[in-house]
Each structure stands twice: as structure tokens, then as C-alpha cells.
Design a protein that fits this description.
Layout (H helix, E strand, L loop, with lengths): L9 H19 L4 E2 L1 H8 L3 H9 L11 E2 H11 L6 E6 L3 H8 L8 E8 L8 E2 L2 E5 L3 H4 L6 E4 L3 H13 L4 E4 L12 E4 L2 H14 L3
Parallel strand pairs: 3-4, 3-7, 4-6, 7-8, 8-9
Antiparallel strand pairs: 1-2, 5-6
Bound molecules: adenosine-5'-triphosphate (ATP).
Length: 211
């Protein structure tokens, strides 16, 4: 079946990696089918939402059978472009940046950090997790058209300037781990992850909205 990706709502698209990872594990453990309630328990999304999400892929669960795992994985791979390796760069090889370089993203999806940048001369020229670290000044010569996504783990005050440089070189998506709010053109997508805000918000919800 042909998949029209423009018809998939953003909220559904955001849940895809979650479904994908769980289904891959199921397949690896030899399971060929899964019910929406089983999925719901595992990924913590209610089963009505799962059924609605899956209907966008033409995957209709059968009563008493559930969903075919291989069928779903085939569609998810296509949708998530799992077959095409996405090359990512990282700027700021501090504690957080170093952890990302050591983390093997390719294990669970087809993304790879191919190079990193920093201003600290003791870090420049090193490799961490087989990723080479270049000086920030080298961004224009190193970042080619094949780089669409960047991870920012620099101090907040440096973030906007670096984002501007990367966008001028064609970067279209930034995963921003700094507390800085970035101003970017409309065609650039920023996903902002402020770990301390996330943690604070989790604690707030635990205290004020106990499950
Ligand atoms: P983290 O916040 O990741 O725990 P940290 O506390 O080790 O890091 P930070 O001061 O946040 O250190 O800096 C993160 C990294 O960003 C450091 O390696 C630092 O050298 C680098 N850095 C600082 N300024 C810039 C800049 N303008 N461009 C690129 N990298 C920078």
C-alpha cells in the first residue's frame, strides 16, 4: 500500500519511534503478532489512540489476532526512513555531548553522529566513540549538504550564534539541549530538550497530580 505521509498527523508521527522500537524488540524475540492492549501496556499510550494511529498505515487489527508485527515494521521503516542513514553533527563536547558521542544511536535507529565541534583545544583533534572532534572554526569546511541535523550541547550563550551558522550551511533540524530559546527561520525545526525543566516538570506532576 502506498503511504501518504502528509496525511499522518504530527502527534501520530511523534509516537512512531516509540512503536517502532517496541515492535523491533518483539520481532527479535520471535513474536509475529501483538494486540493493541499489549502495545498499550508497553508504550504507555492508550489502546484507542494506538488503533487510530495504526489506521493511518492501513493496519487494521483483527479481533482475536491483533496486529501483524512484520507488516507494521515494514511500514514504519519506510515512514521513518530507517533505510537511509541520517548523518548528524554535535556541537559542544562537554559532559552531555561526550555521553552522546559514546552512545551508539545506530543500535536502535539509523542515525549516526559523524563529527563533533568544540572550542576547547584539548578536545579538538581527539576522537570520542570514533567521532572526530574539530574546532568550531572548521564548521564551514566540514559541514556539507548531507548534514541535515545538529545536536547542540554548548553553553546557552553560544547557542544562537552556532545555530545561525549551521542554518546558513543548510541544517534543517536542531536538537537543542541548551536552555536558550533559539530564533530560526520558519523552515527550520527546533526540538528543545531542557533536561532540568523536564525533571522539574516531572516532580511537579508527581506532587500535584498523583496517578
Ligand atoms: P555539559 O553542559 O554538557 O555538562 P560542561 O559542564 O562539561 O558541559 P559547558 O560549559 O556546558 O561544559 O560546555 C559544554 C561544551 O561546550 C564544552 O566542551 C565547551 O568547551 C564547549 N563550548 C563552550 N563554548 C563553545 C562555543 N562557543 N562553541 C562550541 N563549543 C563551545
Amino acid at each position: 500500500m502506498e503511504l501518504d505521509q502528509t496525511k499522518i498527523p504530527q502527534a501520530t508521527a511523534k509516537r512512531l519511534p516509540l512503536y517502532y522500537r517496541f515492535l523491533e524488540n518483539l520481532q527479535a524475540s520471535g513474536k509475529h503478532r501483538v494486540s493493541s492492549s499489549e502495545l498499550s501496556d508497553a508504550v504507555k499510550v492508550d489502546s484507542a489512540t494506538i488503533r487510530r494511529d495504526f489506521s493511518y498505515f492501513g493496519a487494521l487489527g483483527k479481533k482475536g489476532y491483533g496486529y501483524n508485527v512484520n507488516y507494521l515494521l515494514t511500514f514504519f521503516r519506510k515512514t521513518l526512513d530507517q533505510d537511509e542513514l541520517a548523518k548528524v553533527i554535535l556541537v559542544g563536547v562537554g559532559n552531555l555531548g561526550t555521553a552522546f558521542l559514546n552512545y551508539n544511536f545506530t543500535k536502535s535507529n539509523n542515525t549516526k553522529i559523524v563529527m563533533a565541534f568544540d572550542v576547547d583545544e584539548t578536545k579538538v583533534g581527539q576522537n570520542i566513540g570514533s567521532v572526530p572532534i574539530y574546532h568550531l572554526n572548521e564548521i564551514p569546511e566540514q559541514v556539507g549538504e548531507d548534514i541535515e541535523v545538529a545536536i547542540l550541547t554548548v553553553p546557552a550563550h553560544a547557542a544562537q550564534n552556532i545555530a545561525d551558522q549551521l542554518i546558513a550551511l543548510g541544517v534543517k533540524g536542531i536538537l537543542n539541549f541548551t536552555p536558550a530559546r533559539l530564533s530560526v527561520p520558519e523552515d527550520v525545526r527546533i526540538h528543545h530538550i531542557d533536561l532540568s525543566v523536564e525533571l522539574q516538570s516531572l516532580i511537579y506532576f508527581l506532587r500535584h497530580y498523583p496517578i
